[in-house]
């Protein structure tokens, strides 16, 4: 009796959960689907869910027009590079905040977070002038640097909250055994924090991948990532839904697949200290 | 590392270049362009150019219009030097040329034939008789309408209609139950969107932006009348969501058969008559931009996407070669040969309009030429003006002012507040900005 | 507990991050501050001159200033409300046993990976367009007049789009927190005859407090500077109905390249952001302390 009731309940939950999940996912599904339609059918009313002529012409057109792989590669370098450098700078900082907290620790942390609120549009001109004078315009180095700075506060914070959950006694014990500070961080702390670091890394790669203001404004031909690739497909003259969809699919697919595959790692550390 | 090397090389080249043409050196041209159909086509045809100039490599930066404008303006104003060729409009050219930011296009290769350019277009890209950019394509504005709907509603649109004609026809063609809207006009806020149209429309009502002392004129009866008619027509016979419709949105509406009349840029003509994209390709009629009875002015809309070389470019000779190729008569012939005459970039050269093949392939050719030739950008209103420019005011502050004013009219169109309120706000904010900028200068 | 030596080491180790961020903050900030007192338009080089507080005066008296302030708050508040409440509901749902949990979780997570520009373009063109959009089609199927989202309710539409992007983030954090809830406590409460609602109210919600704090804090940081979504969909209009502070600064600085005015706006935006940050800390920061 109870089992039947719980099965029925499970079935009902399944139905609701799937409905919610599919509704949330629908815009992405629709974009991918539209990317396989001929332009005229992409805009047709009523919308065509299956009765259209499947085609790859949009992908071919996009590939002919732009160097997708170069944009893709730039995106990879910029997002992964900025995240790795960010981690290297942030791990020691987060360590000292978590294990040797001073009076100002929380204020420093909050101040760091507040730098993220710096409105990009207001400081574009100063940054552009600096980049010009250092000869770094349209270089991946510049973008890696800028995105490192933009995401650093988030990285520090995530690591800090993660490190704080690690009991200090373990480090004390390592210290008793004569471990130096360096080996303490490298061999004791870091391995314990791997899930937190992994999730920090993933989240920041995603954020850097999708950053669309600096990556668009500081690049031209050589270092432009996928955000610039999208900007060449949004609202041109004439019908564009299908080609836009194809370009969008190509821009989000890599990060979506990465996110899906590493979902467990991403979620495990994505607590910001919210879970005790 | 690489980057530093390149910068060093660049600097050396700059020092050494002097007057020596380095035609055989390998150069890379970075070209910033807008993602419009004609430019995309050009990108596809560049093999022809690189075959003739094996030492030149082309790098394309294709961006959506607003992003492009923001990118190239930042770059040229800060002398960033990231591009060798810019795609800009006749709004930018005179302003930038006056700052010596552009390379004058004299001593171009012979194939360039500057005398073949249509006069109003060349004028719009010249300062004191010197050409600073070469037109890739050019447009004025005209009326496009559905001949089948007009016939069914038994209205006729004359070749040179008045706004009353347009209104009558729009009313007769409207059939909202079947998703047919009598008139589609730009409503999306932006100096190059709704304000381009509204400024041209106001011109044809005899209005102007500023009087000779740079006082804004939104309180004038001409502006009031133009804006009132615009909002009236659009709310009664226009499509839903018109305040978000720009050129593109209206183009798709028209191609889908949902507009009776569409008044917009002449380049649209080749899109709406192209049977692969347009469901109404066979039944499109053309007419001149309307005017108000008794006002001899057809809006004076003139826009040209053109190629220019920033003074900061280090490959100016190669850039000239490319511009000569891309905007020459030969390029039109290449397009014609590859994709048919109707696809040739319109509005720039007399030879194109003299060609019998083009006239036959493009039923809109004659009307486009009339529209462009009648556009007078140095005197856009029947009243005296302190500024030049047709559907815009050619001062650097106009992008900001025009967009802010555009938001006001787009709000009125969306039903937030009435026309009078929009005009009052427009008057105030224009006054504010223009006096901040220090006009009259 | 900590020795003097480790304190010094700690200072040393925190300093790269602090110095870099300080540099990143101060150099552009100093330039911005300096520019904000200049009459400086990029399009008119050589005309720079000292302007005093004129730029600030212009910025504050801009008729769009107060609407922009209001819109910024409504935008942030609206998205926070939807994503927090929606996030709790989705998290509660995903916490139940059902078939295909993993797949549904992937579906819910997906919008977080989509670039803001792409999501704005997709929503605007393929969903909210009053003629060709899916919503318009659905309305017509139901015999209704298509609703013109971006004109009639521009700010609400943008809130909707942004909420769609951030709902997965909120749901996931809340779900992780939910899963750490002690089930014995729950069962005990059930034994005592507490109904599902009161269990939620007295046990689940307090347990989620920290997670909610985190969601609010992080999202606020990102939401204050929403820009791409507005640029793509409404251009801040109609009128100023969807202009937020970032967009106002954009209109003034990048559109007319008035660096002086834009910088003044930037400085104001930074100050406001910091006020919000302090406010947030005061209000909810205590939740974050152990």
UniProtKB/TrEMBL annotation, chain A:
<keyword id="KW-1133">Transmembrane helix</keyword>
<keyword id="KW-1003">Cell membrane</keyword>
<comment type="similarity">
    <text>Belongs to the binding-protein-dependent transport system permease family.</text>
</comment>
<feature type="transmembrane region" description="Helical">
    <location>
        <begin position="141"/>
        <end position="163"/>
    </location>
</feature>
<keyword id="KW-0813">Transport</keyword>
<feature type="transmembrane region" description="Helical">
    <location>
        <begin position="184"/>
        <end position="209"/>
    </location>
</feature>
<dbReference type="Pfam" id="PF00528">
    <property type="entry name" value="BPD_transp_1"/>
</dbReference>
<feature type="transmembrane region" description="Helical">
    <location>
        <begin position="12"/>
        <end position="33"/>
    </location>
</feature>
<dbReference type="GO" id="GO:0005886">
    <property type="term" value="C:plasma membrane"/>
</dbReference>
<feature type="transmembrane region" description="Helical">
    <location>
        <begin position="108"/>
        <end position="129"/>
    </location>
</feature>
<feature type="transmembrane region" description="Helical">
    <location>
        <begin position="240"/>
        <end position="261"/>
    </location>
</feature>
<feature type="domain" description="ABC transmembrane type-1">
    <location>
        <begin position="72"/>
        <end position="262"/>
    </location>
</feature>
<dbReference type="InterPro" id="IPR035906">
    <property type="entry name" value="MetI-like_sf"/>
</dbReference>
<dbReference type="GO" id="GO:0055085">
    <property type="term" value="P:transmembrane transport"/>
</dbReference>
<keyword id="KW-0472">Membrane</keyword>
TrEMBL record, chain B:
<dbReference type="Pfam" id="PF01547">
    <property type="entry name" value="SBP_bac_1"/>
</dbReference>
<comment type="similarity">
    <text>Belongs to the bacterial solute-binding protein 1 family.</text>
</comment>
<dbReference type="InterPro" id="IPR006059">
    <property type="entry name" value="SBP"/>
</dbReference>
<feature type="signal peptide">
    <location>
        <begin position="1"/>
        <end position="23"/>
    </location>
</feature>
<protein>
    <submittedName>
        <fullName>Sorbitol/mannitol transport system substrate-binding protein</fullName>
    </submittedName>
</protein>
<dbReference type="GO" id="GO:0042597">
    <property type="term" value="C:periplasmic space"/>
</dbReference>
<keyword id="KW-0732">Signal</keyword>
<dbReference type="InterPro" id="IPR050490">
    <property type="entry name" value="Bact_solute-bd_prot1"/>
</dbReference>
From TrEMBL, chain C:
<feature type="transmembrane region" description="Helical">
    <location>
        <begin position="12"/>
        <end position="37"/>
    </location>
</feature>
<comment type="similarity">
    <text>Belongs to the binding-protein-dependent transport system permease family.</text>
</comment>
<dbReference type="GO" id="GO:0055085">
    <property type="term" value="P:transmembrane transport"/>
</dbReference>
<feature type="transmembrane region" description="Helical">
    <location>
        <begin position="73"/>
        <end position="94"/>
    </location>
</feature>
<keyword id="KW-0472">Membrane</keyword>
<feature type="transmembrane region" description="Helical">
    <location>
        <begin position="155"/>
        <end position="178"/>
    </location>
</feature>
<dbReference type="Pfam" id="PF00528">
    <property type="entry name" value="BPD_transp_1"/>
</dbReference>
<feature type="transmembrane region" description="Helical">
    <location>
        <begin position="259"/>
        <end position="281"/>
    </location>
</feature>
<keyword id="KW-0813">Transport</keyword>
<dbReference type="GO" id="GO:0005886">
    <property type="term" value="C:plasma membrane"/>
</dbReference>
<feature type="transmembrane region" description="Helical">
    <location>
        <begin position="106"/>
        <end position="123"/>
    </location>
</feature>
<feature type="transmembrane region" description="Helical">
    <location>
        <begin position="208"/>
        <end position="228"/>
    </location>
</feature>
<keyword id="KW-1003">Cell membrane</keyword>
<keyword id="KW-0812">Transmembrane</keyword>
<keyword id="KW-1133">Transmembrane helix</keyword>
């Amino acid at each position: 009796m109870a089992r039947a009731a719980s099965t029925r309940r499970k079935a009902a939950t399944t139905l609701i959960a799937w409905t919610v999940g599919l509704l949330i996912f629908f815009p992405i599904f629709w974009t991918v689907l539209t990317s396989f339609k001929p332009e005229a059918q992409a805009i047709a009313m009523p919308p065509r869910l299956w009765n259209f002529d499947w085609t790859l012409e949009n992908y071919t057109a996009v590939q002919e027009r732009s160097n997708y792989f170069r944009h893709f590669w730039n995106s990879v370098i910029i997002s992964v590079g900025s995240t790795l450098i960010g981690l290297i700078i942030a791990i020691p900082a987060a360590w000292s905040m978590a294990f040797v907290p001073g009076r100002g620790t929380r204020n420093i942390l909050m101040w760091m977070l507040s730098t993220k609120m710096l409105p990009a549009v207001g400081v574009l001109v100063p940054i552009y002038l600096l980049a010009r004078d250092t000869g770094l315009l349209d270089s991946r180095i510049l973008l890696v640097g800028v995105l490192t700075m933009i995401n650093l506060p988030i990285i520090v914070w995530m690591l800090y909250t993660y490190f704080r959950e690690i009991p200090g006694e373990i480090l004390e014990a390592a210290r008793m055994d004569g471990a130096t500070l360096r080996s303490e961080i490298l061999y004791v702390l870091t391995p314990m924090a791997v899930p937190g670091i992994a999730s920090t890394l993933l989240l920041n790669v995603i954020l850097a991948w999708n950053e669309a203001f600096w990556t668009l404004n500081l690049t031209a031909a050589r270092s432009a990532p996928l955000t610039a690739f999208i900007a060449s497909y949004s609202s041109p003259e004439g019908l564009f839904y299908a080609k836009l969809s194809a370009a969008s699919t190509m821009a989000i697919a890599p990060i979506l697949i990465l996110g899906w595959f590493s979902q467990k790692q991403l979620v495990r550390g994505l607590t910001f200290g919210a879970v005790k | 590392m690489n980057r530093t090397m390149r910068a060093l090389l660049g600097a050396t080249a700059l020092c050494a270049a002097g007057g020596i043409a380095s035609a055989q050196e390998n150069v890379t041209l970075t070209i910033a362009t807008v993602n419009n159909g004609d430019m995309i086509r050009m990108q596809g045809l560049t093999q022809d150019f690189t075959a003739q100039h094996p030492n030149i490599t082309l790098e394309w930066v294709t961006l959506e219009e607003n992003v492009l404008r923001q990118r190239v303006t930042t770059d040229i104003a800060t002398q960033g030097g990231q591009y060798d060729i810019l795609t800009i409009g006749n709004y930018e050219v005179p302003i930038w040329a006056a700052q010596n930011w552009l390379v004058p296009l004299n001593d171009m290769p012979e194939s360039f034939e500057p005398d073949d350019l249509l006069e109003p277009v060349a004028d719009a890209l010249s300062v004191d008789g010197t050409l600073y950019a070469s037109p890739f394509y050019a447009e004025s504005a005209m009326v496009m309408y559905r001949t089948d709907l007009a016939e069914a509603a038994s209205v006729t649109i004359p070749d040179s209609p008045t706004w009353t004609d347009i209104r009558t026809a729009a009313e007769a063609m409207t059939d909202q139950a079947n998703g047919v809207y009598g008139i589609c006009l730009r409503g999306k806020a932006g100096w190059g969107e709704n304000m381009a149209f509204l400024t041209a429309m106001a011109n044809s009502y005899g209005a102007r932006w500023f009087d000779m002392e740079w006082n804004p004129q939104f309180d004038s009866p001409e502006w009031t009348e133009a804006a009132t008619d615009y909002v009236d027509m659009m709310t009664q016979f226009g499509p839903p969501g018109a305040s978000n419709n720009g050129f593109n949105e209206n183009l798709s509406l028209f191609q889908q058969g949902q507009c009776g009349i569409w008044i917009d840029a002449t380049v649209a003509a080749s899109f709406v008559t192209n049977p692969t994209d347009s469901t109404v390709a066979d039944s499109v009629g053309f007419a001149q931009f309307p005017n108000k009875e008794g006002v001899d002015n057809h809006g004076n809309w003139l826009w040209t996407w053109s190629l220019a070389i920033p003074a900061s470019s280090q490959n100016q000779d190669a850039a000239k070669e490319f511009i000569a190729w891309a905007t020459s008569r030969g390029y039109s012939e290449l397009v014609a040969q590859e994709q048919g005459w109707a696809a040739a970039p319109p509005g720039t050269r007399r030879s194109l309009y003299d060609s019998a093949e083009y006239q036959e392939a493009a039923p809109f050719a004659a009307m486009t030429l009339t529209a462009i030739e009648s556009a007078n950008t140095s005197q856009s209103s029947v009243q005296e003006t302190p500024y030049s420019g047709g559907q815009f005011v050619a001062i650097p502050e106009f992008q900001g002012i025009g967009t802010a004013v555009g938001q006001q009219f787009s709000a009125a169109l969306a039903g937030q507040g009435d026309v009078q309120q929009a005009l009052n706000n427009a008057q105030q904010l224009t006054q504010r900005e223009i006096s901040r900028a220090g006009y009259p200068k | 507990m900590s020795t003097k030596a480790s304190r010094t080491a700690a200072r040393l180790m925190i300093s790269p991050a602090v110095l870099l961020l300080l540099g990143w903050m101060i150099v552009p900030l100093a330039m911005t501050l300096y520019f904000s007192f200049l009459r400086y338009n990029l399009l008119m080089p050589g005309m720079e001159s000292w302007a005093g507080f004129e730029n600030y005066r212009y910025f504050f008296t801009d008729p769009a200033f107060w609407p922009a302030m209001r819109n910024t708050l409504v935008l942030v508040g609206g998205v926070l409300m939807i994503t927090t409440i929606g996030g709790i509901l989705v998290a509660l749902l995903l916490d139940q046993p059902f078939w295909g949990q993993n797949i549904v979780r992937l579906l819910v997570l997906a919008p977080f990976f989509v670039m803001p520009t792409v999501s704005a373009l997709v929503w605007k063109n393929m969903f909210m367009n009053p003629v060709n959009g899916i919503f318009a089609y659905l309305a017509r199927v139901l015999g209704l007049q298509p609703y013109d989202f971006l004109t009639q309710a521009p700010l609400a539409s943008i809130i909707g789009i942004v909420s769609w992007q951030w709902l997965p983030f909120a749901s996931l954090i809340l779900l992780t927190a939910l899963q750490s809830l002690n089930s014995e406590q729950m069962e005990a409460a059930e034994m005592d005859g507490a109904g599902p609602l009161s269990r939620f109210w007295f046990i689940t919600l307090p347990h989620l407090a920290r997670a909610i704090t985190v969601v609010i804090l992080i999202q606020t940081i990102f939401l204050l500077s929403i820009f791409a979504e507005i640029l793509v969909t409404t251009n801040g209009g109609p009128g100023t109905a969807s202009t937020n502070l970032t967009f106002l600064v954009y209109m003034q600085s990048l559109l007319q390249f008035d660096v002086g005015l834009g910088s003044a706006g930037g400085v104001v935006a930074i100050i406001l952001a910091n006020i919000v940050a302090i406010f947030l800390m005061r209000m909810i920061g205590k939740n974050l302390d152990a």
